[in-house]
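Appendix B, example 12.
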Amino acid sequence: MGKPIVAIVGRPNVGKSTLFNKLAGKRISIVEDTPGVTRDRIYAEAEWLKYNFTIIDTGGIEPDSEDIILAQMRRQAQIAIETAHVIIFLVDGKSGLAPADYEVAQMLRKSNKPVVLVVNKVDRAALEDNAFEFYNLGIGDPITISASQALGLGDMLDKVVEYFDDIIEEEENDEYIRIAFVGRPNVGKSSLVNKLLGEDRNIVSDIPGTTRDAIDSYLETEEGKFILIDTAGIRRRSKIKDEIEKYSVVRTYTAIERADLCILMIDAEEGVSEQDKKIIGYAHDMSKAIMVIVNKWDLIEKDTNTMVKFKKDLQHELNFMSYAPYLFISALTGQRVQKVLEMAKACYDNYNKRIKTGVLNDVVGKAIMRKEPPVVGTSRLKVFYVTQTGTKPPTFVFFVNNPQALHFSYERYIENQLRESFDFEGTGIKMEFRERKE
């Protein structure tokens, strides 16, 4: 049994994301006055009293809507309900009981899960009596709160954690490999994540930008345990018109920071863009593990050299990360999808690799004998000793006579020697040069 999971559900615009952000202690969900802004489930960790638990923010439920996005939001909320141990059913104490609230209540009764009925937007005593009408839902005693003012949250959480005693704490998530799928809108990130999970986890449609937040999914396979982070696609900044999309850009960069491995997804028909370079360049600068997936490969007319030429062109465009491996897939047909996690695990193992000090100094020593450092100014670099100080990414400290005597071309030479000797395919590495007297 994992950590307790609490899903916050309700019709659109009752304040679910505001409550979620208060409980998470940071702004994770997009909060706007536009109904339907939170379109996917969003996960975060929270704690109350002695309990650590996971909260899920869901898209608002519009029970009778025929709109393709709203219909899929309803499906997402349903999956969240199925996943959760406890459900917070949020209603609006200002606008009062709505027909959609009855529909949501009916859905929750069918789930047979513990439900805590919470009346939001009760930010003054005069509104307290508004809670009584919600007894009509037949869900139990309503608890009044104001998520925006953080009023009544303690009473609400006391009620929620009453249901936790039978749920065992899961082991820490350190054993999970976090993978962020990044790229422009509509390149197939959600389709690939869904294929890997074997369920309709993320909203997939032909409308670009349907994933507006970064979404976490947990997956266990023979290759290991993974957290898959499906991010919003980033358009060029000039095209970012509304506030919602601005938040999504920030969210993608945050997802990259959280990830061990970043997978850049490229549309085979469109190729790599300046925006792709910018996104994955951010991951490269942070020395993350990186791989490149070319999706929709089934749509390309091919001859015997098509893939070789395509890969060569991409490597030229992305020459700042020559260490990244490439995989050509079709998320739609499933072509080579089974290789995604296999390659991801290999990249992660290199990202987490540790080299023995003796072997490391032997390799560096031989590299310096083969090619002596150039004179910079009046000084020539002398390396006394090298040690690996960390992993994720592999980090090496070189103790030298004068760090200013290091020429950038020689630094690149040393990095290439380390890569050739120890197989760091798929991961950035860090090298620091510190002064030490002889």
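The radius of gyration is 26 Å. The domain at 173-351 is CATH 3.40.50.300 (Rossmann fold).
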